[in-house]
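Colleagues,

For the teaching module next term, I've prepared a clean inverse folding example: a structure given as tokens, and then the sequence designed for it. I'd like students to try predicting residues themselves before seeing the answer, so please don't circulate the second half yet.
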């Protein structure tokens, strides 16, 4: 499978993960990873901001597909195939952007800044 096909599959796989998250066949661990994947996907703020050269696009190229692949592996194959069929065309108008999905990313950045400031103040 080439890169274009994988990118095209993400448009169906991410909504399928969202649907699988609600199924009883999906394990608790898979649901937790699925929630993280969906929140990261829908968040308008990236873990690594896009304005940082090279690194800014790494999360779009590596982190998101890795989260999707991990989540898919944790969901039973027959359940995921049914969810994939149900998800076809679900986000055809583009992914929804909800600002409250950015809260976990903002919280992570605030935590990082807190620890950096704390380390600097202890060093002074």
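(Answer key — instructors only)
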């Amino acid at each position: 499978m080439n890169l274009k096909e994988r990118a095209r599959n993400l448009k169906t796989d991410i909504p399928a993960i969202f649907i699988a998250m609600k199924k009883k066949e999906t394990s608790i661990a898979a649901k937790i990873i699925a929630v993280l994947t969906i929140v990261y996907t829908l968040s308008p703020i990236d873990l690594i901001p896009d304005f940082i050269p090279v690194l800014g696009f790494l999360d779009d190229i590596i982190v998101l597909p890795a989260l999707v692949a991990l989540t898919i592996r944790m969901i039973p194959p027959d359940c995921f195939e049914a969810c994939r069929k149900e998800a076809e065309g679900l986000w055809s108008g583009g992914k929804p952007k909800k600002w409250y999905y950015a809260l976990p990313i903002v919280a992570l950045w605030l935590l990082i800044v807190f620890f950096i400031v704390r380390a600097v103040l202890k060093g002074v």
